[in-house]
Amino acid sequence: MPDRPGHPTDLPVEPQVEAPLDTVDTVDSPAEPQPAAEESSNRGFLAFSVLVLISAIGTAAVLAFTLPRTNNGGIVVGLLLALGFILAEQLAINVDVRGGVSWSITFCEIPLVIGLFVAPFEVVLAAHLIAGVGTLLIRRVQDRILYNAGAMIFEICAAFAVMNWINSALPAGVPIWTGVVAGALAAPLSSTALALVCVRILGRRMRIGAAARLFLRTTVLGLVNASVGVVGYQVVDHADWGWPLLVLALAGLGALYIAYSGLLREQRDLEALSEVSLMVARSGHQAAARPSLGVADPTEGADVTDADDWQVIADRVKDQLGAARVVLRLRFDPQAPMHVIGSGDDLPTDTVDLDATGPRSDALLRLPGAHVRHFRRVDSVPEIRQGLLRRGVDEALVAPLRSASHLLGVVEAHDKLSRWRGFGQADIRMIGTMASHLATALDNRRLMATLRHDAYHDPLTGLLNRPGFRRAAGDLLRRKADAIAECTVLRIDLDVLPAVSDALGYAWSDRMIVAAGRRLRDALGPEVPLARLEGGAFAVLLADTAADAVRETAERLRRDLTAPYPVDRLTVEAGSVVGYASPRTANAESGGEPDTPDIDALLQRADVAQRAARSSGEAVREYLPTMGQIFLRRFQLVTQFRQALETGQVKVHYQPKVALPSRQVLGVEALVRWRHPEFGKLDPDEFVPAVEAAGLVDALTGFVMDQSLQRVRKWLDRGLRISAAVNLSVRSLDDATFPDRVAAALERHGVPPELLTLELTESGVMADPQRALPVLRALHALGVVLAVDDFGTGYSSLAYLRQLPVDEVKIDKSFVLGMGTDLGDHAVVRSIVELGHSLGLTVVAEGVEDDLARDQLTAMGCDVAQGYLISRPLSESRLEAWLQARTTQARGKRDEMVLTLLT
């Protein structure tokens, strides 16, 4: 980009400011030009620069032969003019316009006016070229010398051509300074026009309004500078003692300039501090927002930062300090070397070991404090001088970036571009303040990265958590949109963890989870999204994996997880169950094409498949559409159950029980039935487990118990003592208040406790006898009859059975049904009858369906029979009809009515 120095409204003198005209209401400026476009733009600028220089030289040659010859001036005048131009360049003020782009205010028109008055064209041109090109070389602006040299020549040509044309066209008597002012004003306007053409050559566009404002500013400042030069020359030339007067005026202007430039410097410093802090914060936000796929360092998102972000920050610091080079050394990980980002001149290749520690460490980077240090080669100790020589610089500012706990990095600024004055106190304060802001922003960025990491990662294993898995998997699937159908979500559950926690404590259980996560990560690799969901449950997303390879992977992962775990000098065997789902099966339900999958939906389906595998005894199971229908139906049943109780969809049926051998009707077992308006008659085995899992079993138990006690009360009112048996859930044994609710129900209905039997499954009682024992004792103290249902199918302990306060056992119907044909079942039934009697318990046989079974049970001494031979479960109305049709009434010992089953 052109960088014409010495011009009031010119492109900035400092070579580090890029494309200044581009920020004043420009349009269609690409944010990040592609390398090919940038290379083409550079070639166009070079060609334009050559054209400008050749045209300028030709124009100067023509003017040298056509302009009137004068004898004014000489070498001394030329040297004084060159010195004036140099001073004007050094006193330039750069005003930031927008986005780090500045507008330069220089005073080159003042020495130009003097030259128009006292020197010929060739002398002024030579002085201007020497001052301008020399300044560019000192400031190391080597890539734009051709263009700027051409622009300088055009300025002098325009000034002399306009001055001579005005002076020759004006009538006699008009002062000569009129043409001088016009010529001095033509110089900056000509270079401004060239700059706008160059902007166009570089592919940028400036709005007409912005260009007009730029020309207006050029005109105003050019006119002011030219007027000052004319007034100063006239005062010195015509007034007695004009030189002292001019010196006083210039001293006042100089003081104003110093004050104004200081204010501008402070404004630029504040803007730069704010801009750098925002850059770091914005960069940290973007980096931290990128989730990783697996185990990650807590500082992740800080050390994997886009290099462009830090490069822009380094460029901005360099521009603000006016340094030849700025180096950012940033340490994101205490265990890793510093990241080095440079702006400006390249670092020498022998500085690659600057992070070495001990005797080989770099002297400039030993920063025990938090202050900026200023090193100069001329007055440094040998060790510091060697460090500066290794960097190839004469002076350096080094500022540490410190947080409250550790060193985050170092900022180095090398060699002030204005070598005649070097870094000053303002620069030291600036880099110190900027380092403080940068350290704070960087520390906040690290904190935000840590918080974001914690939000998306499991604190125990370092793997993704559920939100992190959802995010990482979604990003991966969006990048692989062409392979959506080939992606699969696996849910892997590790078993045996509760046993480890109970035996050895939660710490060892956590160690097993960490080991399991490490095994999965090693088996899958670092690029596969892996998450710990909860407990010993993990989730995996397999992308670009064919259907036949998914099961192999699932089997392999399950084998890896089930390998023995060494725990506290023990070897623990673990189980694992895997369920998986893919968009293939998901879309099979709707018959549609694979679409961007919902990760939560796939996780839910994988969980359904995992539970189906666990219930069926399989190790690996793929989700099928029928599974979803089953679980959806169960969900509907659970959500509609309370309404079904209130609307009368759920009813209680009763199956009679009779004494052997007298065939007296002793009681009934209450069995729940649900006729659903959509699904029809539902089997209790379908909805009761779902209701129990949903925590609604208390409502079901209370409903059945109230209905049964109402029926018993009606029988008592008729003089019949018929008991009712109600099945209990294992959850009821965990509720210490359940006995109180039973007592309240008995009292509410006025039923003696001995006419209520509570049946519990053998597996439910024996799973945790010590936990169930207090509730059972409380119920037994009420006088309620306690029965163990399905006896013989569980894993009961005779010792526990003897200790439990139960009154009867019910032989499971599977043994009773096979008793007539299987000698083994016959022996089991006989053993249970004898065992029950030996413990003083009543023995009830369910599943009696034929006369042979009834007769065999009678011969064994079984007390009570229940089954289809006697009656199927009946509704209340049908039970009353059955009692009237199949029983005979008689008076008992205490004048109570008893029912005896007719033969």
Automatic annotation (TrEMBL):
It comes from Actinokineospora guangxiensis. Residues 485-626 form the GGDEF domain. This is Bifunctional diguanylate cyclase/phosphodiesterase. SUPFAM superfamilies: EAL domain-like, GAF domain-like, Nucleotide cyclase. SMART domains: EAL, GAF, GGDEF. Residues 634-887 form the EAL domain. Residues 1-38 are annotated as: Disordered. Keywords: Membrane, Transmembrane, Transmembrane helix. The chain crosses the membrane at residues 45-67, 74-93, 113-138, 145-166, 178-202, 214-235, 241-260.
